[in-house]
Amino acid sequence: MSDGGDRDASEADGGDAADASGDADRGDETVVRRERFAGGPARSFLSSLADDERIFAADLAVDRAHVVMLAEQDIVGRETAGEILAALDDVEATGHGALPDGEDVHEAIESAVIERVGPDGGKMHTARSRNDEVAACIRYRLRADVLDLIETVVGAREQLLDVARAERETVMPGYTHLQPAQPTTVAHWVLSYEQALRRDTARLLDAYARINQNPLGSAAFAGTPFDVDRERTAELLGFDSVAENSMDASATRDFLVETTSAVATLATTLSGLAEDVVVMASKGHVDLHDDYSSTSSIMPQKKNPDTLELVRGRTGDAVAGLNGLLTNLKGQPRAYNRDLQRAGRHAWDAIDSVTESVAVAAGAVATADWPAETLEAAASDGFATATGVADLLAMAGVPFRTAHEVVAEAAAGLEADEDAPDYAALSAVAEDALGDPLSTYVDREALEAALDPVESVAMRDSRGGPAPDAVDAQVSTAEDAVAIDDEALADRRRAVDRADERLRTEVDRYA
Ligand code: ARG
């Protein structure tokens, strides 16, 4: 049935679609639904029209690409195609709000086209189903949202890098179990989140590759007798490839799962950063800009890190989205079930919520003030330099385990108001344990340096460590990674823009 030219109702007699939709003006009933299933108590329950505003523009693009392809394949005549395409432009101009009532945006747009074109407008839905149509719309819209999210994440990484460069030598306490652990720097801390966001970016880019595939031409799930050109609609819509098996292509929403999972992982990264900043703020280790703070309605002295708490809290939105989506999809049989109409919203909610979080979290960190003196003083709290002292003894040949014991014993002997043992105290314990005076192993100067948080940081210049030189190397790696991801993003945006232009050019040929 590849020769569809003489089936074109614009030049010949109207086919079934024409007969079925003779009267375009039926008030409450749409031309697509006709009298069947038009009303009843479940009407609004069935409808996704309001939610579908999100895919209104996507549906118009999908319709255009499909109609252009139908015309190119002689499935629909040129003239009819031109009328449908003109009607789609008009539908776009009047907007989603002006659509006739319908079960969903696909049906409503089709009705609006038939209202404008007459029965031949019904040829638009030749060789497709709402099943492949909606799958294409979701993918088309989602990829734009994912690109925006990636752009926001890459921008956030750039902001974190600015902080890393500015706070290269700002020593701060590092914690494990929220207990003072070892001194580090603000740069090292912030780079730890850049590196995590780098992986989050990679996960989103990876998901993008599987989002950007063309399900159109699968029809309901079982293909179509019409000679559709699925590569052509892929090209016109900027999809990188064709989702081949028509049953899978219509049914699957795993690209939503993958994306929402990447979004939930990203939200989890942000929640850690947010929690760190909330804790820092409570200790006076960071001073948030007023723009990112809130006050109390009763306690006049308060300046609260509410923005970061909301970033932390929004993780729930993303995790809920992933959970809702997986629960929606679990156990759905092949090929299409109406459950799917409730799948997209979970991904949209997650991605909207977290995109905002990324920008706010990065903005809060980028505009914060890091009180260097307070941080350096706090970096010695709780004998946080202890590991460095043990390292020093181990570097002098004492087995690390023995060095660990010596320092632990010195730590146990500390008075409540003391942060670290002095040279004399360490000496006494060391001589007891090692049988030799401490000076046999380390000189006083080196040991006192190890007790100083700035020196303690400087010692740890292993790859990826907090010493300023090691931090410089990480900044440089991160800069390269940002540049690569920026380019990857620009590349995908260019491809999408090119496809949009191509589609417009093709549509204009029918004017
Ligand atoms: N609004 C529907 C959705 O989002 C479109 C597909 C309807 N298909 C069907 N076979 N009832 O899933």
Task: Provide the fold topology.
Layout: H1 16-20, H2 43-46, H3 56-72, H4 78-94, H5 105-117, H6 130-166, E1 171-176, E2 179-185, H7 186-211, E3 213-214, H8 230-237, E4 241-242, H9 246-251, H10 254-282, H11 306-329, H12 344-367, H13 372-378, H14 386-395, H15 400-412, H16 423-434, H17 444-450, H18 453-459, H19 468-508
Parallel strand pairs: 3-4
Antiparallel strand pairs: 1-2
Residues 48, 104, 106, 130-131, 134, 336, 338, 340-341 line the site of arginine.
Q: What this model shows, in words?
A:
This protein has 511 residues and is mostly helical. It has 3 domains: 15-128, Fumarase C, Chain B, domain 1, CATH 1.10.275; 140-226 and 237-377, Fumarase/aspartase (Central domain) (Fumarase C, Chain A, domain 2, Up-down Bundle), CATH 1.20.200; 386-451, no CATH class. Helix content is 60%, strand content 3%. The strands form 2 sheets. It has a two-stranded antiparallel sheet with strand order 1-2. The protein has a two-stranded parallel ribbon with strand order 3-4. Helix 8 (230-237) links the parallel strand 3 (213-214) and strand 4 (241-242). The two termini are 27 Å apart. The relative contact order is 0.11. Arginine binds next to helix 6. The site of arginine (ARG) has 10 residues, from helix 6. Residues 1-10 have a biased composition (Basic and acidic residues). Residues 383-458 form the Argininosuccinate lyase C-terminal domain.
